Amino acid sequence: MTIYHGSQRKIEKPEFGVGKAGNDFGLGFYCTESEDLAKEWSVLPTHDGFANAYEFEVSGLNVLNLNTPEFTVLNWMAILVSHRQFKIKVPIARAAYQYLKSRFAVNVEAYDVVIGYRADDSYFDFAEAFLNNTITVEQLSSALRLGKLGEQVVLKSREAFARLRFSGFSVADHLEYYPRRQARIETAEKQYLDIQSDGDFKGLYMNVMLSEGIGNDDERIPRNAAS
Q: pLDDT averaged over the chain?
């Protein structure tokens, strides 16, 4: 597969073990199959970016794809709360934080590659709202599909890094790609407000999940972020 990494610099040889452990899926090299998304993610308001391209031989690697029916949207949530800092706005969110990690956790360190949605500012807001009991799990799943904010491919192991071959780069003009990124986010946020205004009084809020001890096999939980 061909994957792209958006950055403020050219990266011909990505280094294993370099980066931030507080990213969505922990330490790793974050890429996407979309060159346009890589360009959007690379630019700053006043600076161009680079979409670094790589050929990646994925066959034979241990791949965790969170957008397959084997997993639910709450597996994605559990991984997210394990790596990123959330604002705990109500007491129930503290219990929810531990509940997600104990019932829905997936050990991403056991995989060479992780595929799943990217929790940029909008997606992170959606996840935080669910944790704080203001939207249902059904609304969360719907929100993740808004604005087509993107799926990421994250290389986690030395073996995955060894399969990567740099094939060039393209420059992302900030005058084109920063407005495109902002428009994508604004579209998602507007649609999210529509979801919130609809109300979902019969859906699965976090307090219901906690009181009923609901697990990953409950039919009411969307099977994955893409469904």
A: 88
Residue 82 three-state SS: helix
Which residue type does 180 have? R
Residue 186's identity, in one-letter code, is E
C-alpha closest to that of 14 among 167, 153, 166 = 166
List the structure tokens of 181. 């990124």
Q: Where are the alpha helices (DSSP H) in 35-148?
A: 35-42, 73-83, 91-104, 121-131, 137-143
Distance CA 227, CA 222 (A): 7
Name the token pair of 103. 């019932």
For 76, 80, 90, 133, 196, the CA distances from 210, given in Å and listed in that order, are: 18, 19, 14, 11, 21
Three-state DSSP class for residue 8: coil
Tokens of 182: 């902002």
Structure confidence by residue, pLDDT tens digits, 53-103: 999 999 999 999 998 888 988 998 899 888 988 888 888 888 998 999 999
- The pTM for the full model equals 0.89
- For the beta carbon of residue 51, count every other beta carbon within 10 angstroms: 26
Selection from 100, 85, 108, 223 nearest residue 154 by Cα: 108
